[in-house]
Every structure is written in structure tokens, then in C-alpha cells.
Design goal:
Largest sheet of chain A: 2 strands, antiparallel
Distance between the termini of chain B: 45 Å
CATH topology of chain B: Formate dehydrogenase/DMSO reductase fold
Structural class of chain B: mainly alpha
Largest sheet of chain B: 2 strands, antiparallel
CATH superfamily of chain B: Formate dehydrogenase/DMSO reductase domain
Radius of gyration of chain B: 20 Å
Strand order of the largest sheet of chain A: 1-2
Strand content of chain B: under 5%
Low-confidence stretches of chain B: none
Helix content of chain B: over 70%
Number of strands of chain B: 2
Helix content of chain A: over 70%
Mean pLDDT of chain A: 92
Mean pLDDT of chain B: 90
Radius of gyration of chain A: 23 Å
Shape of chain B: globular
Number of strands of chain A: 8
Number of domains of chain A: 1
Order of helices and strands of chain A: HHHHEEHHHHEEEHEHHHEEHH
Low-confidence stretches of chain A: 443-454
Largest interface: A-B, 68 and 68 residues
Oligomer: heterodimer
Strand content of chain A: 5-15%
């Protein structure tokens, strides 16, 4: 791999990975804040409004970091991947422009109202502004997923006489079947991050014995949402996403699963280290015939392995792809286990006193971030060696006139600035959490003894 | 169709500069005009609920440019690689400068973010001006339709230009003065007492500079690109541009001391719009001029396919109507002079 290509890939990978730490929480919390505000409005309960305001403050800090790290993403299509932009811009320019016109305007306009306008707006209008922020952030997600879906599975285009791709059918492109399931899977993943963070902060307060009325709301809302979305994450969204990879990117499936030799009744590798030189998995722990069952719903179905495909079409980094995928699936399974147990405890009314479970819920906070990142790495490493699947190879798409030296200069700059952003963000979020939902350790609930009984 | 998109993108860029221009300008005068913590909070409160929405016009204009002229997007963004990346860094620093200052009531923390906010605003205003200067002056495009410009070479207009040379720096300084004045009018409009008075005084100070730079820039542009006058000769309607520019300069000078803040701000917005529209009018149909005009990028050799452009027009209209509605609503909600004590700036 020549060094300029490596730098440009790292540049996008680093900035995209760092950026996506923020929108996943933004999108997850936007949904949960709407839930809190809705309950608060219907029950006319001040504790829910305080809870919504508290998460609004967390949302605000997180949103700023998402915005400032998001602007470079759009620019990089042109700065670092200009040949690709020229090639595919006639198609994906549609969704990227729509994201600005429909999602960002909506989100930014109403976030200002949501954060600074509560005193100027009626409660209903303030609730509406929360809904608008939610709609904007989830819409934005769709446009980006539709753009990525075109790179994974190009549809609705034609090749013009100058070799570039141009739009043939707007609806085919925007309603790419790949985008539908990927969107559902991705948004469910974002909701999991939001739910785990809310639960984690609630568990922390309960364990510290502070703001317990709010903490119970956080844990309850977080566990219910977490349980729902953890299950949806695996079935149907993850399952259907996997089916699409099987059908449309079979070589990617083989690499993800570490299946070097095609076979009927293929086993599912749970743990093991891929050894690409010898074409096998070291120290495998596997379930016989399970992969055939999961992909084709038949125990003896034939699954094509890497050996069925020419080597130049294999994803470039098979071990990393294999690990990303296995980490994602492993954590996804762990989320279901934790949230199902927590839901049972909540249903029986034992959760708020089950210290061991609260500890697990508190410490689980980082894992959805890892799972979401691993999921995106699976999608994008799995797309290799293609930039636009089957149409343009990655090595053909970067800006040829931007040298490796200039690329490294800006990559190092971004690393430095993002390190500062990360430290500042964690510091401010921690202060917000430490400061709590209301001043002092008491809350409105103490004025309303009935609220404690909930 | 391509011509229509040329004017849509030009209008979006002008909207961006008018809107984000006043919060950039507010940042530029921030350290000088707002002295006390109370005054600085009022400046931030004046731009707080809107700066992010204003900045979305940059993203939306960029996205629309990508959609309508992918070849131009590819060439210009990769060619302006270094200054664009620096602009991104400045936008990041400025965003956290505005948003993170309020979180901790500590003079050292606040002073730090005050300086971050103001310095990044000043540099952004200069860079945006210099970017315009580059587009007008021309860049070293070759037959492949690509180029790469270093930040500077010799500061002269040789065959291998840099981003910064005497001409683009001149336009950059004009950008800074223009936006500083624009921001001053906005702060004068949104605040009162000492702060409002100081902002008005600052705008008064900017005026002669702005006047002088406007004319120097016009002369310099004519000097380096005489063909810039061709479109004005062909289409007499172009005479509107200098008329509005001069008239709005005069209105600014008249309205500001009289305390007609709204009028001065509107005049400044018109001045900015017409300076940009005038540049677009002069360049049309060129979208990025080459030092060697054989390689000029025009709307014809950079536009996306015609089906995509027609489909896009339908959703773009809808999106633009919605966006304008949100903006009218938000600005109405936060109209009037800034009061401290609500919200968190």
C-alpha cells in the first residue's frame, strides 16, 4: 500500500471514528429525552422535567462535540477523497446535500430553542422542540446511512460518458434496500448507547445514595429502552443485515466469520485467532453447522469460504475485520443478557436494591461505544478493497495531489485537537454528572412524597 | 439547469456570510468591545442560540455545491487542502470557545475560552476573505482539472501561486474589517448600555477602513484580472451591484451615529450580499478560474447529470422553505435586546 493511500484512509477512519462517539449518544438521548418530556407533560411531574433538563445539558455538551467533529467529515470527501467525489458525487451529493437542507437546519434551529427557550415557550412548544431535535438527528442518520449504502451496494445510478456515476432513479437510490436494514441496525445501536449511558448515571446515583428519585427514572427508562433495543439489535436488524452481506458481499461474510474453506454444514466460530498464512483459525471454539443455519436457515447449506473468491477481491485486513465483527456480536449478546436480567429485576421491583446489578449497569457504559465502533469497522473494512462496491477500488479514490506529508500534517493536527476535545468533553460531562439533576442532593420529589413510592 | 444551481449556491454562500458573518464579527470585536464578564456573557447570549444554525448554512452550501458541481467540489477542496483544514480546526476551536466558556465560573477558564473564541473568529474572517480572493485571482489548475496550492510561495502573483499573496491577503483583511463592522452592528442592535455604545463606536471606526479597502480591492482586482469587467459590459443590469454597494456604505455611515441599529445592520448585510453577488456575476460561468484560462472550471464542465439536478431542485425548494421558516421562527423567539438571567450563557 503506498503511503499516501494509507494516510488518507487513516485520516478518514480516525476522524470518523472519533466523530461517531458523539452522534450515537446524541441520537440515543434525543429519543429518551422525548420520552422523559412526554411523561413529564402527561403526568405534570416536575421530576421528569428536571430529568429531561439534566439530560438536555449532557446532550448539549455532547452535541457541540458532535457538530465540531462532524463538519470535517463532509469536507474530507472533497479534501482527501476528491477522485471519489468526482466519480460518485453526481449520486451521493444528493443525500449529503439533503442532510444539510433537511436534518441539520431542523436540528440546530430547535436545539437552540430546546436548550435556551424553555422559559419563552409553552410546555407543549418546548416538547415539540425536543421532538424536532430528535427528528433532525434521526433524519441526519438516514442520509448518511443512505450515502454509505450506496458505497456498499450501489443502486439507482448510471455511468455517464465521462466515466462518472450519475443519478438514474432518485427513489431507487434513496430507498436502497441496504440502507433500510443498516439504518434500523445503526439507530438501534445508537439507542443502546443512550440507554446504557442513562442507566449507568442512574446506577451511579443510586449506589452513591444521591438524587434517588431521578436516578430511579434514569434506570427505569434506560433499562426498558436498553432491553428493547438490545433485542432489536440482534433480531431482526442484525440478522437481516447479515443476510444482506451474505447475498451481496459473500466474500465479506467469509472474512468476517473467518471461514477460509467453503463447506456445507459450516461451523460458527465463537472465539479463535485467524491465521491467514495457513488459512485456519487457531484455538477455535465453534458451534458445528451453526453458520449454515444462520445464513441459509439450513443445517447443511453450503457456505462459500474465502477460497471461493480471487485473492485480489478479499478485504484487505481480514484479522481486523474478523475481530471487529466478533467483538460487535459478542458485546451485542452481552447487552441482551444484562438488560434482560435487569428488566426482570425491575419487573419484580428488586432492581433498585440489587447492588450487584447496579454495579454491572454502571460499569457497562463504555461497551456500547465499543460495539458501535466495531460495527462500523465491520461494515467499512468489509467493503474493502472497494470504495464503491464493484465500481471503484479504494486505492483509486484518494486525492492524488495531496501528498502523504501534507496528509500526515493534518492527521496529526486532528489527533492533537481531538485529544483536547476528548479530555475537555469528559471533564465537562463528569462535572455535569457530579453536579446532578438539581442543586443540592435533594430534589422536587422530597416535596411530593408520592413520587418516592414510584 | 446548471446556471440555476450556480445562483442557488451563490445565494447560499451569501446567506452564510451574512448570517455567520455577524457572529464571526462579534467574535472579532469581542475582546475589545466587551470588557467585563457581564458584557462578554451578553455577547455570547446574543449569538448563542443562533450561531450553530448560521454555521449550518456553510454545511448546506457545501453539500449543495457537492451535489450540483461534484467536479468543482473535488478540485477546489483538494486544491485548497491546507487552508480548508486550518479553517476546520478554527471552526472546531471557535465552537468550543463559545459553548464551553459558560460551564465553569472561573476567570482563568473564561479568559482562555474568550481568547480562543476571538482569535479563531478573527482568523476565520481573514481566511474566508482570502478564499474569495483565490477564487477571483485564479489557481494553478492543469489539464486534469486538479491543483494543489501551498499556503504561500513568494506572496507575489507568479505562475505557482500560494493561498496567501498580497492580493488575497488584501481581500482577507477586507473580509475581517467587513465582518468586524457587521458584527458590531449586530451587537449594537442586540445590546444596550456601555456595550452597545462601544459596538457602535467600533463600527464607526471600521467604516473608513471598509470604504478604503472596498475601493482598493476593486482597483486591485481590475489590475490583476481586467476581464472581470466583461460580464458587466455585456449585461447592464450589473450596474446594480456598485450602486447597492455604495448606497449601503452610505446608509451605514448615516444610520449608525443616529442609533438606527437595525437599518445599519440591514445595510451591512446588503453590502456583503452584493459584494459576493458582484463577484459571482463577474465570474459567471466560471466557477474556479485557472491561472491559465484554458483550464478554467465552469458550470458546464463541473455540473452533475441533468436528471440529478432536476430531481434535486424539487427537494431543495422544499428544504429551503423549511429552513427559512425555522430561521424566521428562531430569530423571532430571540428578538429584542439580550437580557441575562435566563438560559445558560
Amino acid at each position: 500500500m503506498d503511503s499516501a493511500l494509507l494516510i488518507h484512509r487513516l485520516h478518514f477512519a480516525f476522524t470518523a471514528t472519533f466523530h461517531y462517539l458523539f452522534p450515537q449518544l446524541t441520537m440515543g438521548l434525543a429519543l429518551l429525552i422525548v420520552v422523559l418530556k412526554t411523561i413529564g407533560l402527561r403526568r405534570n411531574d416536575p421530576v421528569y422535567h428536571e430529568a429531561a433538563r439534566f439530560w438536555g445539558r449532557i446532550f448539549g455538551i455532547n452535541f457541540v462535540l458532535g457538530v465540531v467533529t462532524g463538519i470535517p467529515m463532509e469536507f474530507q470527501f472533497g479534501t482527501n477523497w476528491s477522485i471519489f467525489s468526482r466519480f460518485a458525487g453526481g449520486v451521493i451529493g444528493q443525500t449529503l446535500a439533503m442532510e444539510g437542507m433537511f436534518a441539520f437546519f431542523l436540528e440546530s434551529a430547535f436545539l437552540g430553542l430546546f436548550l435556551y427557550g424553555e422559559k419563552r415557550l409553552s410546555p407543549k412548544a418546548h416538547w415539540l422542540s425536543a421532538v424536532a431535535v430528535f427528528a433532525g438527528s434521526w433524519l441526519s442518520g438516514y442520509f448518511i446511512i443512505a450515502t454509505d449504502a450506496f458505497m456498499q451496494h450501489p443502486v439507482g445510478y448510471f455511468t455517464a460518458s465521462d466515466g462518472s456515476l450519475q443519478l438514474a432513479s432518485f427513489w431507487d437510490f434513496v430507498l436502497n434496500p441496504w440502507a433500510g436494514w443498516q439504518y434500523a441496525h445503526n439507530m438501534s445501536g445508537a439507542a443502546i448507547t443512550g440507554a446504557f449511558i442513562m442507566t449507568s448515571v442512574g446506577a451511579f446515583y443510586l449506589l452513591s445514595g444521591k438524587w434517588t428519585a431521578h436516578a430511579r427514572i434514569f434506570v427505569k427508562a434506560g433499562v426498558i429502552a436498553g432491553c428493547l433495543f438490545s433485542v432489536l439489535q440482534i433480531f431482526p436488524t442484525g440478522d437481516r443485515q447479515g443476510k444482506m452481506v451474505t447475498d451481496l458481499q459473500p466474500v465479506t461474510l467469509a472474512a468476517m466469520e473467518g471461514l477460509f474453506q467453503g463447506q456445507s454444514g459450516a461451523p460458527l466460530v465463537i472465539i479463535g485467532q485467524p491465521d491467514q498464512q495457513q488459512g485456519k483459525i487457531d484455538n477455535p471454539l465453534q458451534v458445528p453447522k451453526m453458520l449454515s443455519m444462520l445464513t441459509y436457515r439450513r443445517w447443511n447449506a453450503n457456505v462459500r469460504g474465502l477460497d471461493s473468491f480471487p485473492k485480489q477481491d478479499w478485504p484487505g485486513n481480514i484479522p481486523l475485520l474478523y475481530y471487529s465483527y466478533h467483538i460487535m456480536v459478542g458485546l451485542g449478546t452481552f447487552f441482551v443478557a444484562v438488560m434482560v436480567v435487569a428488566s426482570l429485576l425491575l419487573w419484580r421491583g428488586w432492581l433498585f436494591n440489587a447492588k450487584w446489578m447496579l454495579w454491572i449497569l454502571m460499569l457497562a457504559a463504555p461497551f456500547p461505544y465499543i460495539a458501535n465502533t466495531a460495527g462500523w469497522m465491520t461494515a467499512e473494512l468489509g467493503r474493502q478493497p472497494w470504495l464503491v462496491y464493484g465500481l471503484m477500488r479504494t486505492e483509486a479514490g484518494y486525492s492524488k495531489l495531496v501528498s502523504a506529508g501534507n496528509g500526515m500534517f493534518t492527521l496529526l493536527g486532528f489527533m492533537g485537537i481531538y485529544m483536547v476535545l476528548g479530555i475537555l468533553g469528559l471533564f465537562l460531562l463528569w462535572r455535569e454528572i457530579e453536579h446532578g439533576p438539581v442543586a443540592g442532593h435533594e430534589s422536587a420529589s422530597n416535596l411530593h412524597p408520592a413520587a418516592e413510592a414510584r | 439547469m446548471a446556471s440555476l444551481w450556480f445562483w442557488i449556491v451563490a445565494a447560499m454562500v451569501a446567506t452564510y456570510v451574512v448570517l455567520d458573518g455577524f457572529d464571526l464579527g462579534a467574535g472579532a470585536i469581542y475582546l475589545v468591545a466587551a470588557k467585563t464578564n457581564d458584557e462578554r456573557r451578553r455577547v455570547l447570549r446574543a449569538i448563542g442560540p443562533v450561531w450553530d444554525g448560521n454555521e449550518v448554512w456553510l454545511l448546506a452550501a457545501g453539500g449543495t455545491l457537492y451535489f450540483a458541481f461534484p467536479q468543482l467540489y473535488a478540485s477546489s477542496f483538494s486544491g485548497f487542502y491546507l487552508p480548508l483544514t486550518i479553517v476546520l480546526w478554527l471552526l472546531i476551536l471557535r465552537g468550543i470557545g463559545i459553548e464551553f466558556r459558560v460551564h465553569i465560573e472561573n476567570p482563568v477558564w473564561q479568559e482562555f475560552f474568550d481568547v480562543v473564541f476571538s482569535v479563531s473568529s478573527i482568523l476565520l474572517a481573514v481566511f474566508f476573505g482570502a478564499a474569495l480572493g483565490n477564487v477571483v485571482r485564479g489557481v494553478p489548475l492543469d489539464a486534469t482539472g486538479y491543483f494543489f496550492e501551498p499556503l504561500w510561495t513568494t506572496f507575489k502573483l507568479g505562475p505557482q501561486t500560494g493561498i496567501l499573496d498580497w492580493y488575497t491577503v488584501l481581500i482577507g483583511v477586507m473580509g475581517l474589517v467587513t465582518l468586524a463592522a457587521h458584527g458590531s452592528y449586530y451587537i449594537a442592535l442586540k445590546t444596550d448600555a456601555d456595550l452597545g455604545r462601544r459596538a457602535r463606536g467600533f463600527a464607526l471606526l471600521c467604516w473608513p477602513l471598509q470604504f478604503f479597502l472596498t475601493f482598493s480591492a476593486m482597483v486591485a482586482t481590475y489590475f490583476i484580472r481586467p476581464e472581470i469587467m466583461t460580464n458587466y459590459g455585456k449585461h447592464p443590469v450589473g450596474i446594480l451591484v456598485p450602486i447597492v454597494v455604495i448606497a449601503s456604505l452610505a446608509v451605514m455611515l448615516w444610520a449608525n451615529p443616529k442609533g438606527k441599529e437595525k437599518l445599519a445592520f440591514v445595510a451591512s448585510s446588503l453590502y456583503i450580499s452584493f459584494m459576493l453577488v458582484g463577484a459571482a456575476f463577474a465570474l459567471y460561468p466560471v466557477v474556479l478560474s485557472a491561472r491559465n484560462h484554458r483550464y478554467d472550471l465552469t458550470i458546464y464542465n463541473t455540473a452533475a447529470g441533468s436528471h440529478g439536478l432536476s430531481v434535486g431542485f424539487a427537494w431543495w425548494m422544499l428544504g429551503a422553505v423549511l429552513a427559512i421558516a425555522y430561521f424566521v421562527f428562531v430569530y423571532r423567539m430571540f428578538r429584542g435586546k439580550v437580557q441575562l438571567g435566563e438560559g445558560h450563557y
